[in-house]
Amino acid sequence: MTLEEHPTSDGALTLIVDIDGSSLTPDYSVGFDGFEWHTHGDLLYLGEALPQEAAVRKFVDQLLNDQLTIVVSRINGKITNAWVTDELNVEEEIKYKPDEETLEFRYWSGSSAIPV
Questions:
Q1: Residue range 64-93, pLDDT digits in tens
Q2: Whole-model pTM?
């Protein structure tokens, strides 16, 4: 069940927060609508041992407040994937990309995550 939807102001991405409550322990997931990448609440902030709901809230708040970097993959100008990286390492991200792929490093607001 979808709990939250957050579109970027430029309409490029929509963040989806889902919960699967079919088991005794609800499973929260966060990802971009239409793309493969996602994460789960129990994987977020493991060192802080936060409950899933709190970990998801912290992650979403940080993302929406430009504190986390989004990598957007494009081929021929079309977005093919998007994911959140907790450590911006441009060299590592582009190391294995195909020649026809371009990567954009951005924040939620649309501003560039790469310092000029």
A1: 999 999 999 999 999 999 999 977 787 888
A2: 0.89
